[in-house]
Amino acid sequence: MPRRTAGQGQIRLRADGRLEVRVFAEGRRRTRALPKGSSRQMAERVREQFVRESREGRLAGTSSEFLAAYLRRWLSTTAQRTLRPRSLERYTGVIERHVIPTAGDVRLSAFTEQHAASLHATWARDVSSHTARYHHAVLRSAFREAVERRVLERNPMHGVHPPRRIRRAMQALSPGEARQLIEAARGDDLEALYVLAVTTGLRLGELLALQWRDVDVRHGRLSVQRTLVRLRGCWIVSEPKSLRSCRTVALGERAVVALEARRIRQAAGNAQAAPEWGAGDLIFTDGTGRPLIGAHITERCLKPLLTRAGLPRIRFHDLRHTAATLLLSEGVHPKIVSELLGHSSIELTLDTYSHVLPDMQARVAQAMDDVLR
After folding, report:
1. pTM for the complete prediction?
2. Superfamily name and number for 67-159
């Protein structure tokens, strides 16, 4: 094959019989091997594309930007525009604490699968497998844009497999334990919070963002419209986790009674602390009307309550798992449970609570026997 002048690229035949296109740009050689059996005409088209992208400064892998600069710019632009506040904070923490200190001085175009594997080795030593998988997903998202902008030829995270997913044991209360918790919470300042968590499966952020205008006691239902999170000491009200998280939830009699008691208790506190009372309409607040802090609820309220009731020490989020498990165990259709929880799909519900399905299938078999008997 004839040699071309500088900058025009080359086509060569490799030892394995495949055609390879080479282009020199910014002092670096970029190569692309074509599939076996590719024609010379196809190689010429690839060469012309390489040359054109090189002249326009779009040839993948020729960026001289350092990884740290790219990731910080990605966080301040694309990530800030597309991620929820809490997710953006977590992405920033991953990149600033677990990526930049180790690989921030590597040029973006030089970052390879070997660098990605080295990061995974560090994560395997410092964090859990679940956290390492999350770190992997963050970097994969960041590099995806670099590939789309032709800064990289391929996503280096695709060539490295994250750790195997290890499911965390779910700690859901049994029906007897759930009743025991609700009885122990009777008269507690946060009784309504615990009752709603167990009977509706709302997320803690959704519960803390509830306002009295969201509750229709007469018809026994409430509307989930927002979620409340605390970032760097500031409260942020945002949309729920997904589109299906905006939903209307039916309330049982016990939940309605607990909410009415909460309204009376809050009104009394409002009268006593009127000068400091917040202007919000939130259902769950402290004595001055300010939002409650999720971590304080778990550590200072829920866990002492569980200890007094003789129940296992679980997370607040496990009350949501309890609601789903109790409903599925009682034969409620997974589609209904998925809508109640505000899951993005019924597949997520079935995957999360697959441990409940064997008992449900046994009931189905028994029901079929009853029909045919």
Report:
1. 0.71
2. Tyrosine recombinase, N-terminal domain (1.10.150.130)
